[in-house]
Amino acid sequence: MTLRLHFTAQDLSRIRLAEGARPLLELSIGIRLLQERTYPVRFDAWRQRAAGHLRPRLGPLFDFIPALGSSVDFLDMSGAESLETSLEQMRSIPARRVVEDLEQWVAGREDLPRYARQLRDDPSLVRHLAQAVQDAHQGFIAPYWPRIEQAASADRTVRIQQLAEDGVERLLRELNPRYLTWEPPVLHVTTASGRDDDVHLGGRGLLLIPSVFGAHYPAYDYPDDGQPWITFPVRDSAHAVAATAGSTARTLTDAPASLRALLGRTRAIVLLVIAEHPACTTSQLATYARTSPASASEHATVLRNAGLTTLTRHGKRVLHALSPAGQALLSSAAEA
């Protein structure tokens, strides 16, 4: 049995690749992983570390996000790209919607979790749930986030290349071959729950979201008021992280002496990192250069003002890239 997503030509033209992993969506999948023990051993070390951050106040999250099955709608963690935006949206959910979502979620359930009863009686308690989400993210996801971003960024480069060279058909075929099967014009999705259903996208397209924790069964949703989405596993995430770390380590030690003399060691490293990781964000730049975000931003500004790098905005993201002058400087330094 599979979930079948039916595409029209308009849907195919509206397929989008998310810019990166979603922090709270990774958290949601991670909470399921902590409850479901049949996943590969590669998550065992993470589970052991995460167990040290388990606290009673996080209990409601495990009630509302079960190992299998749907989570309550007001805990949808897929939409916003940032932690802050997601938490603000959760705290400002109208009381009526909290109650409606709870009633829909508990329909047909024999045992209603205690916190669900409390929340139904006092919807303002959703603020405490938002705090639990923040605490869980801090313990389960935040320590690994730079590595997750690196792996997702490397994977996105590969997917974009597939799309450019062979079109959307190959992109869909190779997203997750074991659990996603592309038989035009239908994408067959094998879900953890074994759901059997037909979904017609109706011209809304599909948003493809990379996931490190969602290494097997895809997560998905097709909301009434937004674009349907589905997760796909970041390929070779361990290799991508290792390759990125190795590249950055070489950057830290191999910056030419002439470049260090001209720019200073840290600024030279920042310039080389931007060259190695075009379109990186300031937070990624800081991670790769092993410096603070404030320092990375300061050095990037100096380099940009000198005409050695460029800055573009994509939505709320600020992306750094090498300018022709910066490329010429690196080329001359390498030849010196």
Characterise the protein shown here:
The chain is α/β, with parallel strands linked by helices. It is built from 15 helices and eleven strands. It has helices at 9-13, 23-35, 44-51, 59-64, 83-91, 95-106, 114-121, 126-140, 145-173, 237-254, 257-263, 265-276, 282-289, 293-305, 324-335, and strands spanning 3-6, 16-17, 180-183, 186-189, 197-200, 207-211, 220-221, 229-233, 280-281, 309-314, 317-322. The strands form three sheets. The protein has a four-stranded mixed β-sheet. It has a four-stranded mixed β-sheet with strand order 2-6-8-7. It has a three-stranded antiparallel β-sheet with strand order 9-11-10. α13 (282-289) packs across α14. The longest helix has 29 residues, at 145-173.
Please name the defining characteristics of this protein.
4-stranded mixed beta sheet; alpha/beta; 336 residues; 11 strands; 15 helices
Q: How would you summarize what this structure contains?
A:
The protein is α/β, with parallel strands linked by helices. Helix content is 52%, strand content 13%. The chain is globular.
Q: What is the molecular shape?
A: globular
- Note the run of SSEs as H and E: EHEHHHHHHHHEEEEEEHHHEHHEEH
Number of strands: 11
Main sheet characteristics = 4 strands, mixed
Question: How would the blueprint of this fold be written?
Answer:
Layout lengths: L2 E4 L2 H5 L2 E2 L5 H13 L8 H8 L7 H6 L18 H9 L3 H12 L7 H8 L4 H15 L4 H29 L6 E4 L2 E4 L7 E4 L6 E5 L8 E2 L7 E5 L3 H18 L2 H7 L1 H12 L3 E2 H8 L3 H13 L3 E6 L2 E6 L1 H12 L1
Parallel strand pairs: 1-5, 2-6, 6-8
Antiparallel strand pairs: 1-4, 3-4, 7-8, 9-11, 10-11
